[in-house]
Amino acid sequence: MPEYKNIVILTGAGISAESGLATFRSSNGLWNNHPVEDVATVEAFQRNPAYVHDFYNELKKELVKAQPNPAHLAITKLQKEYPAKISVVTQNVDTLHEKAQNSNIYHIHGQINQAVCQNCGHIIETFGDVDTQTVCPNCQVMGMMKPNIVFFGENLLYMDKVDSLLRTCDLFLSIGTSGVVFPAAAFVQIAKINGAHTIEFNLEPTSNNYYFDQHIFGKAGTTLPAFIDELIKNNK
Ligand code: APR
Questions:
Q1: Which domain holds residue 128?
Q2: 18 alpha carbon to ligand 1 midpoint, in Å?
Q3: What is the value of pTM for the model shown?
């Protein structure tokens, strides 16, 4: 019998760092060069949609080139070789979990390759540019497409599903997130209170210290594959 039956893996920008993508709050982080209030709030988009579209169109060019690293690939190995329900709840808007063939992925902060029509709700998938001239293929209205990115002040996506996953998991892994943005930063607490074993994979301790049973420090591209190999071996 496997040690765990329901595993939730929460990922943040740190899992994509070794794929060459900038995190948000490090020294050369994304938010250092583009303040959140200029590109990641509802007000910013209302104030200057063209500027916000440009930011995400540029980011898209970066993200589309990135390839999954051993941390993403280790999750696929776990999902294939460990007989448990394994869900990936990601704060990342890149598609590296998909490129690594992970399954059961929930992008709670949205996805860079999607845009949503504010007139009819239709979602398009594209790595191409979206801007104030883009016509919605569903309702044919122009200029109402918004990057399908959850801006600060907006509700996260898939929260009902994520809440039930957190309440029923027996292993919660947090990979490469600073644990400072809520509600994702509180997920470990929900998992812990509901009986899960909780492990943090990061370069350094984060502010969520007391809710983690274990801390595995180091680069996720090294630490996560090692942990997953051990988990699979112990289940043989
Ligand atoms: N391996 C493991 N952890 C790493 C690595 C690595 N190779 N590189 C960086 N990290 C860790 C950093 O120590 C940091 O704790 O990843 C974390 C990245 O933190 P942030 O830059 O704050 O990114 P994240 O936690 O994903 O931000 C959460 O904030 O602005 C919003 O929507 C945005 O989804 C984002 C959310």
A1: 22-65+111-149
A2: 12
A3: 0.95
